[in-house]
Amino acid sequence: MVTIEDNIHCDMHGEYETFEDAIAELRIRATIPWDQRPNLAPCTSWKTCGREYSVIEYNTSQMPWQLLRTVPVLNVSANAVEWMTGFEAAWSASTPP
Question: Looking at residues 35-61, what average pLDDT do you find?
Answer without folding.
Answer: 95
